[in-house]
Automatic annotation (TrEMBL), chains A, B, C:
Keyword Hydrolase: no
One of the record's GO cellular component terms: plasma membrane
Residue stretches in coiled coil: none
InterPro entries: Ammonium/urea_transptr (IPR029020), Urea_transporter (IPR004937)
Any Pfam family: UT
UniProt membrane topology term: Multi-pass membrane protein
Site features described as Important for channel permeability, chain residue numbers: 282
Similarity comment text for this entry: Belongs to the urea transporter family.
The name this protein goes by in its record: Urea transporter
Keywords linked to the UniProt accession: Cell membrane, Membrane, Transmembrane, Transmembrane helix
Subcellular location: Cell membrane
Membrane-spanning parts: 20-43, 64-84, 90-112, 169-192, 199-217, 229-247, 254-274, 280-299
Length: 305, 305, 305
């Protein structure tokens, strides 16, 4: 029973919330996009949590779900990028979810030197390694060609319709779990409000900042509507206001600046990985959040929780 | 008035010199290449210095101009790479110059663990992110195609004329601010001699080492004449002899070895970034200088200032 | 005489063994692949060891051969990748082998914060910089075209013959020194057994894990037979079981997990470097070994030597 709660909390920790009920709603959201995704998410979180128990990781981290969220994202990422219905993908997702425990321990120890949390850095590293290595293995990669390509300048219309905007508003929250459907994002948002009004409100603020920044910079409308442009803004806003820094006007302004930076940074990461066949994942969020938190002690106006 | 001096010192700190008069000469040099570049440089330094004041950064750093030089380079880099006469470039340059304050604070805190200075690492990170992300935004990027391309083997003549040599000697100093004109480099060199004979002499030594290394390795003559081959050697020589290590024969030899390494490293960084559309900036200088300084305490012959 | 022993130990330290006799056997193995490689290996190790003496590095490190193995690999790598019979390659190999001393000192100091060893990280950084920069210099690069190319999905047969398997078993050990010939790997393995039964046995275990993982994932048969698929598994197994962690059942299981991860990671590193013209070298080993060691203190079942 304790294990089930840990796994559900692990799902919810993707959005910084140690709440099992939110984890149930997140699973429902994944199933709304496809039952395989719901299954991969739960199985990945379970594999990560179980391997943390086996290796003897500190119980407090496991109980809070902190050993599950990176594994959850790795498993769902495998399903989305390598095809959920291959046996090879399922085995790889389980193995990777277990290995993420080691990566989390390593990254946590290195970053502890500066009192920084890992966020989804272990997921980003694992998912990048997986997707870039995959085309090199014939039993893992089931497409004819690999995904490597030189990045090109954006084209396509940039003026946004009302539909683009409200789809994008919810899809920004769905894309945190790789899902472009607006209704999946809406279910995730309900889960966040279940965990507390602040979590839900900050996700909304982040999504709006992401939309506005993407529009101002001239992001192609399709990327805005599918949430590709704005998911990092949601994560940065939630991470910088309330999770590590005390939630006040200063940290909110700081979080909004970070959300703008992460929205700008996303195509840079996409272009950096494109020639090798990789993806941006949540690298923009992780890099911006770590930089802004590492800098925080230098600015006396920002207070740590 | 204090703010004006801080901004001018910030300009001069690009070459490690906290001297407002040198900052005036550097501005004149930028204006000789184009008045827009002079304006972007001053505005960027001012934005960086102002945001450091607003966020409450330690006064000593601001007074010494240490919160201005990365912002200066970011703004001039925007003007050179995105087109100085677009409103989008101006707004982006100001925003980026302000954000560099956060990045500087973060990098300074991380590197303080090993008593290492930031050098232009915050500039390199920001400028790389900006130029690689830019083609992804239609209101930021005003060309038809993006700059991404696979690197090719060097071609073109490698034998140097006397004109190549003396142009290159000054252009090595001009390219620190992205400027290939020999007379711009000459103005910068005058500014350095204004700050002190040692700063000017070290810049000359570094430029000569860069020229000689580039010739010995067979660098295409055009790159030598425009200072592309040697600007990192100038920066490494100034940084390793006198700024952090006591200036003596040992640190000079160490600096020359570093200058050779940085000259070699430049095409590696260019090739690493080329497929994503990025540039080498001063990454070779930053990486070599940080490695050589991190190693210095292991070698008893080198003494820290 | 002391210097000769230090150089031979430096050769042997490529495989974590401070044994001069093993160094002699390794040299013989290199000569079996080509006398130039044997010469480059010895000259590189000597240059690295000598520059460490000149700069005044701690005597214990030099005596144990720890200042030689990265330089050895850098020099052999130059011979393999730039052509052993060019004067430019010989000069570059010596200069790079000397510079590796500085890089080793820097990396050792940074990683000491977490009590982590450098492994072959200085070699990987130097060799990557060298091979990616080389095509930019006409007196260094003697081919018409550079090596940069977008990575493609694996093709070719993946079913392994018995010949592929036993060739691969030995070649996994030979590829640590860039050599694809099975008999070179066999000589290296004899050298390891000379140093002790455990070193030899662990190399065999690592090679088997590499073979099995490569087969299970569907690695092209040619890569398996030439040892490209499995050399990182050999290194990881030796590094994680006995060198830093106490050799017991737990650290062996941990090492095997690491060997699987490194075998998976290899094509990712190859794809990351391919568009710039670089190679995977022992990056997969270094990254996996550092991550697994950084994580080790979190797991109470693993004990440090």
């Amino acid at each position: 029973m304790g294990f089930v709660v840990e796994v559900l909390r692990g799902q919810a920790q993707v959005d910084f919330v140690p709440n099992a009920l939110t984890g149930v709603v997140f699973s429902a959201g994944l199933c709304a996009a496809g039952w395989e995704f719901g299954l991969y998410g739960l199985a990945g979180t379970a594999a990560g949590t179980a391997s943390a128990r086996l290796l003897g990781v500190d119980r407090d981290r496991i109980t809070a779900g902190l050993e599950g969220f990176n594994a959850c994202l790795v498993a769902v990422g495998c399903a989305v990028l390598l095809g959920a219905r291959h046996l090879s993908t399922a085995l790889l997702a389980l193995a990777a979810a277990a290995l993420v425990t080691v990566l989390t321990a390593a990254v946590a120890r290195l970053l502890a030197t500066w009192q920084l949390p890992t966020f989804t850095l272990p997921f980003c590293m694992t998912a990048s390694a997986l997707t870039i290595a995959a085309p090199g293995f014939r039993r893992v990669w089931h497409e004819d060609a690999g995904p490597a390509a030189l990045p090109r300048a954006a084209d396509g219309p940039v003026s946004l319709t009302f539909t683009d905007l409200w789809h994008g508003f919810f899809a920004n929250i769905g894309q945190i779990f790789f899902m472009p459907q607006w209704y999946v994002g809406l279910i995730f948002l309900l889960g966040l409000f279940l965990a507390g009004r602040r979590a839900g409100a900050l996700a909304c603020v982040g999504s709006l900042v992401g939309l506005l920044t993407a529009w101002a910079l001239g992001t192609p409308a399709e990327q805005v509507a599918e949430g590709v442009a704005g998911y990092n803004a949601v994560l940065v806003t939630m991470a910088l206001c309330g999770v590590v820094l005390v939630a006040d006007a200063w940290s909110l302004a700081y979080a909004v600046a970070g959300a703008v930076a992460a929205t700008f940074l996303r195509p840079a990461l996409a272009a950096l990985f494109a020639p090798s066949g990789g993806h941006a994942f949540t690298w923009p969020f992780v890099l911006v959040a770590l930089v802004f938190l590492a800098a925080a002690p230098v600015f006396p106006r920002l207070r740590r929780v």
